[in-house]
Design a protein that fits this description.
about 40% helix, Phosphorylase Kinase, domain 1, five-stranded parallel β-sheet, single chain, six-stranded antiparallel β-sheet, Rossmann fold
C-alpha cells in the first residue's frame, strides 16, 4: 500500500527537519496528489525561485523507471507550453522531481466554474486549445505521446493566461509516421494507462495509438469546457470502452448556440471515434484553431454602401482614411507592443514614449488584436515566442484582415535562428530586430515605418475625398460619372 501525501510530508519532516530541505529545495506545503505521487510547493535555495517538488509514492522498480522517464522527457521537451523540469534525484529514500511551479488554476477549475453557471468564453477555449496543441506538437516532435491530456493536467497561468501541460508520467515513445502498439513487449492497457472519458477509443481498446490519440483527449477537454458538462460518464474502464467506441459526441452548438461553426467543427473532428477522421497531428489542429480564431476576429461585412456625400458647398472637410480614422489621428506615432515580458514592455514604452510615440503594451495576443480592431496603430512590435497566441499567429491574423493588413510589424526577439527569421518574414513581418538592438536604432525604425503608415493613410484619405468630389460633381451636372 502506497503512503499518502500527508505521510510523505511527515516523513520529510522527520528525516529532513522542519521545514524539510531536500535537494536544495525548501518544502512548504502540499499542492495536490495523483496516482503516482504527491506535489509540494517549495523554494529553490540556489535559484531563488518557487518550484514544485513531485515525490513518488512507491519504490517499485517499474514505477520508479516511469517516474524517471517522466522527468527525462519533460527536460527534453523545452517548450513554453510544457512544464519545465529542473532536476530528478533520489535522496534519503525519496525519489522526486523538481519542476517549474505554475501559479494559476487548472482547466478543471474552469470547468467546475462553468458547470456552476459561469461559462467560459469561446476565445478562452480556443486559446487553451492552441497552447496545448503547441505543447503536444513539441512532444510529438521528440517522438513521445502524452496519453493523459485532461483538464486536471492543464494549468492556466495567473500571470498571462498561458497554458502548460502537466504530468508526463504516462508518456510513451513512438516512431513518427507510425503508431505505438500497446502489445509490443507485452504492454497492456493497465501499463499504458490513461483516464476513462479522456483516453481515445483506440487507447481504451488496447489498439495502436498515435498523435491522433492526444488530439482526441484535447478535443474532449475543449468540448467539456464549452458545454459545461462531462463528455462521457463512465465508472469503469469497460464502461468507457463501450461508450467511447460506439457513441460520437453530440454537436456542441445546441448546448452552446453562441459557438461559431468553425469551433464546433474542429471540436467534432478532434473527437471522432475513427482516428483516421481526426486531425492527424497537433500542428494540423493548431492550424485549424488559428483559422477559427481568425474568423472570429474578422469584422462583420458592411451592410449597404457608403453614405452619400454631403452637398458640395463649403470647404472640404479633412478626409478620413480607409479605416475611417486617418486624419483625426494625432501626429505622434501610435505603437502597439505585444510581449509576455511585462518588464520589457515597460522599457519599450519608456524608450518610444520619450521619442514622442504613443505606446500601448499588451501581454495577451487576443487582447492586442481586439484593440487593433478598435484603433489601428501605426506600427506593431511583436515577440516571436509567447504563451498562448504567439507573435507569428498574431502577424498571420493581421495579414488576413483588411483593416490590419498593411500595418508594419516588427519582430523584436532573442530568437536568432535563421529558420525562425525566415518564418517570421514569410508570415508577413516588415522587420526583424534582436532584443540587443540599440534604443536609437529601434526608435529610428519605428519612426520610419510610422511615417510610411501615415502617408499611406493620407493617400487613401485623399483618394476617398476625390471619389466623393466626383460623385457630387456628377450629381450637379446630371451625369452618372465624370
Amino acid at each position: 500500500m502506497h503512503p499518502t501525501a500527508e505521510e510523505i510530508f511527515g516523513e520529510l519532516i522527520a528525516r529532513r527537519g522542519s521545514p524539510p530541505i531536500i535537494g536544495g529545495v525548501v518544502i512548504h506545503s502540499l499542492i495536490g496528489a495523483g496516482g503516482m505521487g504527491a506535489v509540494f510547493m517549495g523554494t529553490h535555495l540556489r535559484l531563488h525561485i518557487p518550484v514544485a517538488a513531485k515525490f513518488m509514492f512507491g519504490q517499485e522498480q517499474d514505477d520508479a523507471a516511469r517516474f524517471i522517464d517522466e522527468a527525462t522527457l519533460a527536460a527534453r521537451v523545452n517548450h513554453p507550453n510544457v512544464v519545465r523540469v529542473y532536476d530528478v534525484n533520489k535522496e534519503d529514500g525519496f525519489l522526486y522531481i523538481v519542476q517549474e511551479y505554475v501559479e494559476g488554476q487548472s482547466a478543471e477549475r474552469y470547468f467546475q466554474d462553468s458547470f456552476a453557471g459561469k461559462p467560459v468564453t469561446e476565445d478562452f477555449v480556443l486559446s487553451l486549445g492552441a497552447d496545448v496543441a503547441r505543447g503536444l506538437a513539441a512532444m510529438h516532435a521528440e517522438s513521445f505521446l502524452h496519453l493523459d491530456i485532461k483538464p486536471t493536467n492543464i494549468m492556466v497561468a495567473k500571470r498571462d493566461g498561458g497554458c502548460k501541460i502537466l504530468d508526463l508520467g504516462l508518456s510513451r515513445r513512438f516512431t513518427p509516421g507510425s503508431t505505438l502498439s500497446q502489445e509490443q513487449g507485452g504492454v497492456i492497457h493497465q501499463h499504458l494507462g490513461g483516464t476513462p472519458g479522456y483516453a481515445s477509443p483506440e487507447q481504451l481498446q488496447q489498439l495502436p495509438v498515435g498523435p491522433a490519440s492526444d488530439v482526441y483527449s484535447l478535443g474532449v477537454t475543449m468540448f467539456e469546457l464549452l458545454a459545461a458538462r462531462r463528455a462521457h460518464v463512465a465508472d469503469s474502464w469497460s464502461t468507457a470502452v463501450v461508450q467511447q467506441s460506439v457513441n460520437e459526441l453530440p454537436d456542441i452548438r445546441p448546448l452552446r448556440p453562441d459557438i461559431s461553426p468553425a469551433t464546433a467543427g474542429l471540436v467534432a473532428r478532434c473527437t471522432r471515434i475513427n482516428p483516421d477522421l481526426r486531425f492527424q497531428s497537433a500542428l494540423e489542429l493548431l492550424s485549424c484553431i488559428v483559422d477559427a480564431t481568425q474568423a472570429r476576429m474578422a469584422p462583420p461585412p458592411a451592410v449597404g454602401g457608403a453614405p452619400r456625400a454631403a452637398a458640395l458647398g463649403g470647404a472640404l472637410s479633412p478626409a478620413a482614411g480607409a479605416d475611417g480614422s486617418a486624419f483625426s489621428r494625432p501626429s505622434a506615432p501610435a505603437v502597439f507592443c505585444v510581449d509576455d515580458d511585462q518588464a520589457l514592455g515597460a522599457v519599450l514604452a519608456r524608450i518610444l514614449g520619450e521619442a514622442g510615440c504613443s505606446v500601448q503594451t499588451f501581454t495577451d495576443g487576443m487582447l492586442a488584436l481586439k484593440a487593433m480592431q478598435q484603433e489601428a496603430p501605426d506600427v506593431v512590435i511583436l515577440d516571436v515566442e509567447m504563451p498562448g497566441m504567439t507573435g507569428l499567429d498574431i502577424c498571420r491574423i493581421m495579414r488576413s484582415l483588411e483593416r490590419l493588413r498593411h500595418i508594419p510589424v516588427v519582430f523584436l526577439t532573442e530568437e536568432t535562428a535563421p529558420a525562425k527569421m525566415s518564418l517570421a518574414l514569410h508570415e508577413g513581418a516588415t522587420d526583424y530586430l534582436f532584443k540587443s538592438v540599440e534604443p536609437a536604432d529601434l526608435v529610428a525604425r519605428v519612426r520610419c515605418l510610422a511615417r510610411i503608415t501615415q502617408a499611406q493613410r493620407e493617400l487613401e484619405g485623399l483618394q476617398q475625398q476625390f471619389g466623393q468630389f466626383r460623385k457630387r460633381l456628377a450629381a450637379l451636372v446630371g451625369k452618372d460619372s465624370v
